[in-house]
Amino acid sequence: MAKEEKKFYKDMRKKAHEFEKRSEYLDHELKIMSFKRWRFNLPIRDWGVELEDWVPALAATIGKVVMVTAMVAVFATEYGLDAAFVAENVRWELLIGALFVILFSALLMPNANLAGTHGPMIPLIPLIAAAGGHPLSLGLMVAFFGLILAFTKGGSKLMTLTGVGVRGGLLIYLGAVGLIGQIGKLEAWAASTDQGYISFAVIGITLLIYAYLAKLKLRWVAIPVCSIIAGVVAFALGAEFHFTTTPGLPHMSPLYWWGETTGWQLGWPNLNQFIAVTPFALLAVAMWSPDYLGHRVFQELNYPKRCRRRIDGC
User: Which residues cross the membrane (predicted)?
Assistant: First the structure.
């Protein structure tokens, strides 16, 4: 009788010492992971956690903090809120994001690309405010349309319609906009302290480090490594280092966040505000799939060739 084919991750898993190289072991792990859609995928049975997983986790945390801060800061400017509110809101969003990452990315739909905070939406925030939009109604409408997209597998359809050729344009556009914006902010920060040379040194050194990491095929460690090196270089050149906020948890009560005189100081949204944000919510959800094409490029560069099912997503 032919030996029954092993189909489950826990059955196909091997010990790291059975491979000559660590990279071969990690590639094998990616090839054998078996996920089920909308069912609980449990650690050890369906997937495992390796030491290397902390690197993208740290990179994602850095990116989430930066993007949420940028998004909330623009909202705060439009609604006349101070920097203390921005810090409080970022803490709250990180907690919510962590819960959704655990629930969806780790347990229910590991193949799905978890929707993040879109940088290209930031220039639209003044328009959302001018249209009478409410941040809570915007978030709820994005969640509503996003769930429809997930249940209908519309993300995969949008990716197909977008086409491979759009990938390069999106990467160039989003990369250029992000790069120009961040360089401008870095130069403005250095100039505000009369230490303009710091921005030049940080940009130059991080570019060299990234190029070297790419040569070693270690692009996946670039964000945390370059962030740490940038901080060390800036501090060594005389930049001031101090915390402007103290550690702590945000307000947990929804009544605080959506009060008339607390939190966003906007109260609870009404029907008109839901209608006002609907076009922006549709645009945000429509941007998820093209945005994912950029993520997919980096996955294809770093995942082994026989891992298509891990890259394709939902």
Answer: 57-80, 92-112, 124-152, 164-184, 196-213, 220-243, 271-289
Residue 106 lies in a domain: yes
- The dihedral over CA atoms of 182, 243, 266, 269, expressed in degrees to the nearest 10, equals 70
Give the distance between the most distant pair of CA atoms in the chain: 78
pLDDT digits over 217-247, tens only? 888 888 889 889 999 999 999 888 877 777 8
Q: What is the pLDDT of residues 48-81, one digit of tens each?
A: 888 888 888 888 888 888 888 888 988 999 999 9
> What distances in angstroms separate CA 313 from CA 57, 112, 196, 259, 299, one per listed residue?
19, 5, 44, 39, 11
Q: Is the per-residue pLDDT at 266 higher than 70?
A: yes
**Residue 231 maps to a domain:** yes
Give the total number of structural domains in the chain.
1
Q: In terms of residue numbers, what domain contains 296?
A: 52-303
Q: How far apart are the C-alpha atoms of 108 and 102, rounded to whole Å?
A: 9
Burial code (b: 16+ CB inside 10 Å, e: under 16) for 58-90 equals bbbeebbeebbbbbbbbbbebeebeeebbbbbb
Spatial separation of the C-alpha atoms in residues 181 and 199, rounded to whole Å: 13
List, for residues 146-182, the tens digit of each pLDDT value.
888 878 877 777 777 766 666 677 777 777 877 887 8
Q: Per the structure block, which two tokens stand in for 271? A: 């029907």
Q: Is residue 57 part of a domain?
A: yes
Provide CB contacts within 8 A for 282, sequence distance 6+: 145
Answer whether 110's CB lies under 8 Å from 42's CB: no
- The answer to whether residue 229 is domain-embedded is yes
